[in-house]
Amino acid sequence: MEENDEIMDDFQEEDVEHVGVGKVLNFLKSRNVRASVISRFRTEKMDPDAICGADDKLLEDLGLCAKGDICALRSYCQGWNSSSTPSGSFTQTPESCRQERKRKLMAILQSGKKTRLKQNVAETSTKSKKPNNVVTGSSVQMKEKTRRIQLGWLHYNKKEDRYIHVRATNGGGTRNMEFPAAYTKDNVLQAAIGIFFENGQSKFGFANEMEFDLANFKMEKVDVLRDNDGIENPFTIQGYFQCYKLSKARIYLMSKDKTITEVTNSETE
Questions:
Q1: For residues 232 and 246, what is the distance between their CA atoms, to the nearest angstrom?
Q2: How far from the centroid of its chain's Cα atoms is residue 111's Cα?
Q3: Bridge partners of residue 251, in order along the sequence
Q4: How do residues 22-72 score in pLDDT, each as one tens digit?
Q5: Half-sphere exposure (CA, 13 Å, Cβ side) for 15?
Q6: What is the DSSP track for 225-258?
């Protein structure tokens, strides 16, 4: 053992640059291999790369005769070239680390080029399939025009025999809404009912017990709109603004209990 220590001391002084050889010699020393054999490995500069490339006969010629020592040494040296670093394996030199990083970087760059190439081919193929009459740009993606209105609620009061404003405390009030300009009377009615009759009910009863209509800012029922020539047109939000030449518009939901209408009709009969 003392002779082995002397060999290792000599190696550290004379061959510091051969780190791989030193690792091999240390491993052989840990397995109690004879000093003369370790000396021959040192003389022949048997580093891990050389061990991995040597066959059993060459290692035996160097004096390593035990099969267990041969297998253990080769397994140990294979860790030097492994992509992973198992416990007890060698630490890669700075140069080998740089080469490995360079190789991985080149692989990533090549992969990125291939991906971009595939994307460009796919985009070119998609563009070539577009019909010539397709209009692209803002004309296709134009946002639907909307108009702002003030929405109120009028509920029929039997005692006063008229429609009266429903205050905010009773679920009414004025709601500032933004509706599509193309909304029809039915669209506005359904939206207003959903707002003032939340979950289908209100302080004055259920929505399915009511008759509904729309009223203009004069609190008059509105069914159709007349243009400047007196021609009647179906109600739309945009038409409402144009018909009354409004910059701001108010519309009312009108509600009336169906039982009142039924009683009135029966009394008339």
A1: 18
A2: 23
A3: 151
A4: 888 999 999 999 999 999 999 988 888 888 888 888 999 999 999 889 988
A5: 20
A6: EE-TT--EEE-BHHHHHHHHT-SSEEEEEEEEEH
Cα separation of the two ends of the chain:
128
2 sits in which H/E element: helix 2-14
pTM over 0.85: no
What span, in angstroms and rounded, lies between the C-alpha atoms of 52 and 56? 10
- Sign of the alpha-carbon torsion through 6, 80, 99, 102: negative
Alpha-carbon distance of 12 to 22, in angstroms, equals 8
Strand duo 146-157 + 249-257: pairing: parallel
- Count of Cβ atoms closer than 10 Å to residue 155 Cβ: 22
Burial class (CB within 10 angstroms; exposed 0-12, middle 13-18, buried 19+) of 120:
exposed
How far is the C-alpha of 255 from the C-alpha of 206, rounded, in Å? 11
| Side chain identity, residue 157 | N
Residue 253, SS3 per DSSP: strand
Distance CA 42, CA 15 (A): 9
> Which amino acid, 33?
V
Q: Are the CB atoms for 47 and 20 separated by under 8 Å?
A: yes
DSSP code per residue over 83-117: SS--TTPPPPPHHHHHHHHHHHHHHHHHHHHHHHH
Cα(130)–Cα(102) distance, integer angstroms: 43
Instruction: Of 226, 218, 223, 221, give the one whose Cα is nearest residue 250.
Output: 218
